[in-house]
Specification:
The structure holds two protein chains of two kinds.
Chain A (H helix, E strand, L loop, with lengths): L4 E10 L2 E11 L4 E6 L5 H8 L7 E6 L2 E3 L4 H6 L2 E4 L11 H6 L5 E2 L4 E2 L1 H14 L15 H14 L4 E5 L7 H16 L3 E6 L2 H7 L2 E6 L2 E7 L5 H9 L17 E11 L5 E11 L2 E6 L6 H9 L6 E6 L2 E2 L5 H6 L2 E4 L3 H5 L6 H5 L17 H14 L16 H13 L5 E5 L7 H16 L3 E5 L3 H7 L2 E6 L2 E6 L6 H8 L7 H11 L1
Parallel strand pairs in A: 3-10, 3-11, 6-9, 9-10, 15-20, 15-21, 18-19, 19-20
Antiparallel strand pairs in A: 1-2, 1-4, 4-5, 7-8, 11-12, 13-14, 13-16, 16-17, 21-22
Chain B lengths: L1 H22 L2 H22 L4 H9 L2 H26 L7 H19 L4 E2 L2 E2 H26 L4 H24 L14 H19 L1 H11 L1 H6 L4 H25 L15 H11 L4 H23 L6 H5 L1 H13 L17
Antiparallel strand pairs in B: 1-2
Helix pairs in contact in B: 2-3, 2-13, 3-13, 4-5, 4-8, 4-11, 4-12, 4-13, 5-6, 5-7, 5-11, 5-12, 6-7, 6-11, 8-9, 8-11, 9-11, 12-13, 12-15
Classes of the chains: A alpha/beta, B mainly alpha.
Chain lengths: ~525, ~350
């Protein structure tokens, strides 16, 4: 049978970089194909070639057997290829129907006005056909991320897509929404559509795909039938060596309470309560994890602790001191390290070089500014130290932050914060955007901090990360802790339920919560 | 006991009225609020005809004051509609004032050049002048659009430049042609036509913005240009169109302003006197809705008309004080109501990827 998509020897070079190196890819019609690889393995570049965003340096794109060359995405759309990007391309104040038809609106009165009624009807029909269950009149800003994603898929289908490319579709979803997405995949393929999805999560590839192609350093290192593959095999191909599958936590008795949060209320920038009555404590030598879908109050909670926002009510005590009366600088000086979630906005000053970025937050200390003026030699040595220890590439301290890839920026920030010799580390998505090798390294360093008796507050949307590392795990939903659980005794499904705001039964967890109060 | 219950009922009624008012859409709140205030003045005026409220009521409920209010508000409302199109598409056009000045002057200039009493192809010179004024607004806005969209200049600075250019150019050209900063009277006006033009424009702009594909592209370009780009529509083309429309509507506003009295005044801040900036206030107040912007313009125009009449019957209210009202209103609205929703991508340049 002719494959729906056949990429034949695709090479894509950018100045100084080979993003794809002679990649072959065959995707059968009506199948789900996972494109698996680490960050920077060339998955998205390859799909952008198929979608017409990039022209291949070498190689041929064949769709349904015919060689094609696309000058732009609209050529690809014309022959039935649709791509759903990681960041949704939706207009928030418009309705779902308006978004779906944007650019291809049905019209009335000789093309003068938009035919809203027909647009609504067509979107509704399309939605029903694939069981999407969306309300065409709802505004994008009113619906959940999962629904927004379905709107993106609807947009592609409305334009007649037969082949759908999804770039990291599960990154923003709760486990339940991921399940629903995979059901949508089934519905789509059963009606003859072909799906390619990009992921770096092994479990998803094995669970949802019929075939898996693994990319590493821009090369195809294997196309496999999803049945019968093992996680170890996939991981090894992705990374090119044996990897530790789960971070291993050695049991350890935690020490004194370092951070105590009690009945905390925090409002977000719009004045809406984002954290409602949250209480917990983190002890030295303990990793306290917070899981949850982004936007359920984690950011506001973290900002209240690090001093970027003021809580409306409640107390935060840090090593016996009221945190609220401490300025941001005092908090840093007293040993609170902070890995922010938005590295562009909070983590680094983009046009600064790494020397300058390396002393952010400690620019006033006697170490770097003994006489009030910054000693750039010490600062330079410090930056070089971080770069070497955390394998930041390119390894030049003079490089500006913006010239680094996201993963390397992240490594540098983590290095800077962990090297402060902190008492409390507030780490938000510490491994976001970094590859598996660096992830392992960062996990090891977090465990090292724990072994040295530091308190760690770990916030991550990666379930396996928080679950694997934490001693105790809280799940946050709509500003509240829907539960504090022992991460080793709950399943991923149970955490998923908590993330969706439901409660799980089990005496053990209740006990854990009580212990926390005491 | 019974009294208590009545009081409760009373309170409940009050509460439900307030709730109902709050649940109205923003534009309707303004309309209902305005009618309420007018009704209050009317009732008090009827009860105490000799009081200042009585004077006020007599002024407000007079047809000539109403048409005067409409006339005053026409240039503001037209410029505001223009501003809506530019900003909805993602380009903040702070240069509306300049567009009003240049079109007001050009309209008078062209009319005078043809000869106010002449006709060209059966069209009276004053209407050729009107069209020339509109064209001048469009041309200046086109320059603004090119600088902002193609060369990615800062929109605020470029907008201020538009204002300053017009502020210098119009009186200068007037001095060259008419021998003074003021043009002198044409001896003819377009009468109340600006009112009709404004009302038609409000309707047309509303339909265009909310019921056509073009309007939906304008809104998308200002909210999430990437979404529009991936849908295969050129963002820069839509933004150019939005800016040109701002020149078109503001051009009609400027031409209306000068031709309704038949001369151009170029001294000081020129006869436009900040109407372009009040227009920005008007469309923010009207939450980017042409109808809302019209309502806000009418409110400002109405206050101005009342003030003029109050002066005439001997109340010494300083006009400069009345002129600050729009700005005080906008600060109050933005600070306390905060319902104005600024397009997310307004003021941000957009670059298509490879």
């Amino acid at each position: 049978m002719t494959p729906a998509v056949h990429l034949d020897g695709i090479t894509k070079r950018f100045p100084g970089v080979v993003a794809n190196d002679n990649v072959d890819l065959r995707v059968e019609e009506g199948s789900v194909h996972a494109l698996l690889g680490e960050n920077g393995a060339g998955k998205t570049t390859l799909m952008n070639v198929l979608y017409g965003l990039y022209q291949p340096t070498e190689g041929t794109v064949r769709v349904n057997g015919e060689p094609r060359s696309f000058a732009s995405p609209s050529d690809a759309i014309d022959i039935g290829i649709g791509m759903i990007h990681q960041h949704f391309m939706l207009v928030d104040p418009m309705t779902i129907a308006e978004n779906v038809v944007l650019g291809n609106e049905p019209r009335k009165y000789g093309g003068l006005l938009i035919d809203r009624e027909r647009a609504r009807k067509e979107v509704l029909e399309l939605s029903d056909k694939y069981g999407f269950n969306v309300d065409p009149d709802a505004r994008i800003e009113e619906v959940s991320v999962g629904v927004q994603q379905r709107v993106e898929i609807l947009k592609a289908l409305y334009r007649g897509a037969e082949i759908l490319i999804l770039d990291e579709p599960t990154a923003v979803l709760t486990p339940q929404e991921v399940e629903e997405l995979f059901e949508v995949f089934d519905e789509l393929t059963s009606q003859g559509k072909t799906i390619i999805f990009i992921t770096h999560k092994l479990g998803e590839a094995m669970h949802a795909a019929d075939d898996i192609t693994i990319l590493r350093n821009g090369k195809n290192v294997g196309s496999l039938d999803a049945k019968g593959v093992t996680r170890e095999d996939l991981a090894q191909r992705m990374v090119g060596r044996e990897v530790l599958m789960e971070p291993q936590v050695t049991p350890q008795e935690p020490g004194e309470v370092t951070l105590d949060v009690s009945h905390l209320h925090v409002e977000d920038t719009r004045g809406v309560e984002a954290v409602s009555d949250v209480s917990f404590s983190v002890r030295s030598g303990e990793i306290f994890g917070i899981a949850g879908v982004d936007g359920n109050g984690q950011s506001e909670l973290v900002e209240a602790i690090t001093g970027l926002t003021n809580p409306t009510d409640g107390d935060i005590t840090y090593r016996g001191r009221q945190l609220e009366s401490m300025t941001r600088r005092e908090r840093i000086d007293s040993g609170i390290a902070y890995v922010p979630e938005d590295r562009h906005e909070r983590g680094m000053v983009m046009p600064f070089n790494l020397v300058q970025n390396g002393i952010l937050g400690s620019q006033h200390t006697s170490e770097f500014a003994p006489s009030g003026r910054i000693n750039w030699e010490t600062a330079g040595a410090h930056a070089t130290e971080i770069i070497e220890e955390y394998d930041v590439r390119p390894p030049t301290a003079e490089a500006t932050a913006e010239s680094l890839s996201g993963g390397n920026q992240q490594k540098f920030i983590v290095g800077r914060e962990f090297d402060r010799d902190p008492e409390l580390v507030v780490a938000t998505h510490p491994t976001r955007g970094v590859d598996i090798g660096a992830m392992e390294f960062i996990h090891e360093r977090i465990q090292e901090l724990r072994a040295n008796g530091k308190a760690i507050l770990l916030i991550s949307s990666k379930l396996e990360e928080v679950q694997g590392l934490s001693d105790r795990l809280a799940v946050m939903h709509e500003g509240e802790f829907s539960g504090i659980v022992d991460p080793s005794s709950v399943t991923e499904e149970q955490i998923g339920l908590l993330m969706a705001g439901e409660s799980i039964s089990g005496g053990e967890n209740a006990a854990l919560r009580e212990e926390d109060v005491a | 006991m019974r009294e208590n219950a009545e009081q409760n009922q009373d309170q409940e009624l009050k509460k439900s009225l307030i709730d109902r008012f709050k649940s109205l859409s923003y534009v309707w709140q303004i309309i209902v609020g305005t009618i309420g205030v007018l009704a209050l003045i009317g009732v008090v005026g009827l009860l105490f005809p000799a009081s200042p409220a009585g004077d006020l009521a007599r002024i407000i409920f007079r047809w000539s004051v109403f048409t005067q209010a409409l006339r005053i508000s026409a240039p503001i409302a037209l410029a505001a509609i223009g501003g809506i199109f530019a900003e909805k598409s993602g380009v903040i056009n702070i240069g509306l004032e300049g567009l009003l000045i240049i079109s007001a002057f050009t309209a008078v200039l062209v009319t005078a050049m043809i000869g106010p009493a002449e006709t060209v192809a059966f069209i009276p010179a004053i209407w050729i002048g009107f069209l020339a004024g509109v064209l001048a607004g469009v041309i200046l806005s086109a320059l603004f659009g090119i600088v902002c969209i193609e060369f990615k200049a800062d929109q605020i600075i470029a907008g201020l430049a538009v204002w300053l250019i017009a502020l210098g150019l119009a009186p200068f050209a007037s001095t060259l042609y008419f021998g003074g900063r003021d043009t002198g009277s044409l001896g003819t006006t377009i009468g109340n036509w600006p009112i009709a033009i404004m009302l038609l424009s409000v309707l047309a702009a509303w339909v265009l913005l909310n019921h056509t594909t073009f309007g939906s592209y304008i809104r998308a370009a200002g909210e999430n240009p990437k979404a529009l780009d991936t849908a295969g529509v050129s963002v820069s083309r839509i933004r150019h169109a939005g800016v040109l429309l701002s020149g078109f509507f503001a051009g009609m506003g400027g031409a209306s302003l000068s031709l309704s009295i038949g001369l151009f005044i170029g001294t000081g801040e020129t006869m436009v006197e900040g109407r372009g900036f009040i227009a920005i206030v008007a469309y923010l107040f009207g939450n980017y809705n042409p109808v809302g912007a019209f309502g806000a313009s009418l409110l400002f125009g109405g206050l101005d008309a009342i003030q003029i009449r109050l002066q005439q019957i001997g109340y010494g209210i300083p006009d400069t004080l009345v002129q600050t009202i729009p700005y005080i209103v906008v600060i109050l609205v933005l600070a306390f109501v905060g319902r104005t929703r600024i397009p997310k991508a307004a003021g941000k340049h957009y670059e298509t990827e490879e």
